[in-house]
Amino acid sequence: MFETLMDTIGARFGRPEPRRRVRDFIAGLLAPLPVKNCWTIAEHAGDDGPGGMQDLIGRASWDDAGVRADVRDFVAARLGHPDGVLLVDEAGDLKKGTRTVGVQRQYSGTAGKIENCQLAVHLSYASPLGHTLLDVALYLPKSWTEDPERRAEAGVPNTIGFATKPQLARRLIETALAGGLPCRWVAGDEAYGGDPRLAAALRGHRLGYVLAVACSHHVPTGLGIFRADRLAAGLPKRAWQRLSAGVGAKGLRYYDWAFIALPHAVDQHQGHHWLLIRRNRGTGELAFYRCWSPELVALRQLVAVAGRRWSIEESFQATKTGLGLDQHQHRRWKAWHRWTTLVIAAHAFLAAATAISTSSPDGLIDITVNELRRLFHALILEPARPAADVIAWSIFRRRHQDAAKISHYARQALTEP
Question: Tell me, what's the pLDDT at 330?
């Protein structure tokens, strides 16, 4: 599978040297290097210096958007499912200075406060077969788009203008749809749920959505327009149902859920509108979602889509801790997109390979993306140790994780339905 993906991506390059280097680069991203950059990846590949890898990222002639299209086709062939969910979210990379493309002081969800950082809108794909990052768009604040000298220094193309994060998300979604990726739903947080134009565009594509909104979001009802939190406060006790939003690190994620049909929100796209409300069983904290589907669906289906949104956070964690998504040292537009594209390709390979891993016997959890990355490097890319030693360590880790899983589920069973 790895060689198939590398051959597909390699067809984007006209010469054998960059084809070899892109394979070595992705192999380096998959390697357990303490830091991922062109120097360490070149050393892992056996090069005598970092120049070749730096050329690949900064100066060689290739189309990163074309490579992401190849990755999308690879994902569609191996993880594609009619009930697939497109997930949009932003990731921030903390940076120093002012010269790195897109950087300024702005709110970063990664840091939880205003910091000097880059922000990028990511598109992820989740299906019953697995989930992976798929596409990306760097957010350029107006302080960049309105500064020609700064743009020129960072190599920002003249065709790139200012776009809000929901506008970037819409472009990513429409590119995925145009590429034939099978999907039925879109999910995102408040940054995207609060934009009515994005929601209208999704309805136009007949894509159902579950988009988070603020408690102050105004909802049309037969009695007028009300805030979401006011509607929640008036719900009777029987309106709430306890349902799981999916499997978490410590068992099933149970919340109390309610939904309100909104027939007065119907527009020219027809379909069905709801306000979905989630209540934390411990704190009572509420979360709100605007939902739409071209056909009638049950509450359980909306809850499942809302729960799917957290898989993009898992993808961020896997790519940052294992693949160096945020470890790039590049200031320019082209280099940033190329680094991120190759990280996405590496993650898509791991997700697809994990999806075909056979079920584990009793006493072991299924192989995870992180575990497969370790095995693939040790057994295929760099078999420096005996295979039996590598597999023994894999079994040890998975047995320990299975014992922890059983313990979490047993503790949860004492209090959960």
Answer: 85
Q: Residue 401 sits in which domain range?
A: 359-413
Task: Report the number of distinct structural domains present in the chain.
Answer: 2
Q: What is the pLDDT of residues 26-58, one digit of tens each?
A: 999 999 988 999 988 988 888 888 889 999 999
- 116-127 confidence digits (pLDDT tens): 889 999 999 999
Within-domain flag for 176:
no
The 10s digit of each residue's pLDDT in 354-380 is 998 766 777 888 888 999 999 998 888
3-state secondary structure the chain: CHHHHHHHHHCCCCCHHHHHHHHHHHHHHHCCCCCCCHHHHHHHHCCCCCHHHHHHHHCCCCCHHHHHHHHHHHHHHHHCCCCCEEEEEEEEEECCCCCCCCCEEEEECCCCEEEEEEEEEEEEEEECCEEEEEEEEECCCHHHHCCHHHHHHHCCCCCCCCCCHHHHHHHHHHHHHHCCCCCCEEEECHHHHCCHHHHHHHHHCCCEEEEEECCCCEEEECCEEEEHHHHHHCCCHHHCEEEEEEEECCEEEEEEEEEEECHHHCCCCCCEEEEEEEECCCCCCEEEEEEEECCCCCHHHHHHHHHHCCHHHHHHHHHHHHCCCCCCCCCCHHHHHHHHHHHHHHHHHHHHHHHCCCCCCCCCCCCCHHHHHHHHHHHHHCCCCCHHHHHHHHHHHHHHHHHHHHHHHHHHHCCCC
In this structure, is residue 232 part of a structural domain? yes
